[in-house]
Amino acid sequence: MTIGVQSPEIQDHFNKLFSSILMEQQKIDHVKTADEDKKELLTNKLKEYEQLKGRGFFYAFMASGRGHGPFVEMIDGSIKYDLINGIGVNLLGHSHPIYIKANLEAATSDTMMTGNLLSYQEPYELSKVLLDSVKASRLKHFWFSCSGSFSNDTALKILWQKKAPNYRLIAFQKSFAGRSIAMQDVTYNAAYREGMPSSIQVDHVPHYNYKDPENALKNTIDALDKLIEKNGNTYCALTLELIQGEAGFIFGTKEYYEGIFKWAKKHGIYIWVDEVQSFARTHQMFAFQMFGLDEYVDIVTIGKVLQAAGTLYTEELNPKPGLIAGTFNGSVASMNAGKATIRYLKDGNFYGENGRIKNLEDKFKAQFKKLAEGSCKGKIPYYGGVGTMLSFEVGDASNDTTNKFMKKLFDNGIITFSAGKEPTRVRFLLSLAILDEHINEIFSILEKTILEVI
Ligand SMILES: Cc1ncc(COP(=O)(O)O)c(C=O)c1O
Known about the structure:
This protein is an alpha/beta fold. The chain has helices at 8-25, 39-53, 85-88, 97-107, 121-132, 148-163, 183-186, 213-231, 254-266, 287-290, 332-347, 356-373, 399-412, 436-453, and strands spanning 63-68, 71-74, 79-82, 113-114, 139-145, 168-172, 202-205, 235-240, 243-244, 250-251, 270-275, 299-302, 309-314, 330-331, 382-386, 389-393, 414-415, 417-419, 425-429. It folds into two domains: 31-90 and 352-453, Aspartate Aminotransferase, domain 1 (Alpha-Beta Complex); 112-330, Type I PLP-dependent aspartate aminotransferase-like (Major domain) (Aspartate Aminotransferase, domain 2), CATH 3.40.640.10. It has a seven-stranded mixed β-sheet with strand order 5-13-12-11-8-6-7, with helices on both faces. A four-stranded mixed β-sheet has the order 1-2-3-17. A four-stranded antiparallel β-sheet has the order 15-16-19-18. The chain is globular and about 65 Å long. The mean pLDDT is 97.
């Protein structure tokens, strides 16, 4: 423990509490249907919550707070494989010792939230460990915040200030950048900003076309050149997800990204990589490291797996005082968990070609291949992805078919989410707690559900 009150008595209680919580959570260790007497509880509470919230939920999902590894329990007593993990948050798995410890440590502190003006030790340590993991790049500073959207807003403000009055931004088709007033314009899907006034100037160019890889770079560069022809060089930056999450995990190659980044550098346009979803989930801690793009990135945003969010940037982009700040930037528990997660991932054998993440990806892909060429032939038109970000299509890959399939899969014991639109994909954001025995069971549930629905 680095902050808060400490004494032999507290340490003793801490140890006992830690092991008691872990032992109780570990009981959630298999798929299970709802308890008869609790079914109504879930239905009634959800109905009430839907009233409070003003809209329905896609799944009958209300978690009980009990879960372990890849398993999560609902308040009706049912237990399911969680293959979406709070949309990508619980990389280490439910009730991982790091998460329990981070919360207990935070309880010894005199405060719950931290900001970036009056500091505690936790954000300082988190910043140190994070910046230490990007040493091969020019990123030198870290500014934390509570959400991916806010970390993106921070990035945009930094870039705008640096390049004023060049406020135009280049983004990519099918991108997702969050829900803030600025980020809804960066996000490609117009349905997410229905009725909104456009508040910033964003131009979207095509991302990597995996169906036409040979011409992918040329098509993007042509679109970029056209923007400069039309608007002059009024751009501050180019922002992109190297692995497009909400699009269903579409990604290019090192050569493709290098081509775009060289174009940007030639035009004095800053490179902003949004790793809110991909952070810690690919073959390296950052996707830009996996593609070997360290030298190009000027600003990188992260979130989700970190249990916090934030913006990493170069010395050159360090903004003037007063531009960025905030009261609620992160909880002590989230700073604790973020720091410990990074240390754990860096020290363990998770990254690289022989790391646990690549190994998990290979095992999932091998199982998909077996299904697609075997009992489910013709029913899985696509599977792919990278690291713990995997997706697949079922049947005609329409919204209707995919939603029907996911709901049945939920009933059968697996939680997923969709991504992309026509083709709509079933998306996994896997946790590292998945073992071989789980993979076998997951694929037998998948097979059963595909044969039932498709
Ligand atoms: C690539 C990307 N950027 C930004 C965001 C927004 O993050 P948040 O929901 O934490 O605001 C997301 C969330 O899914 C994302 O996937």
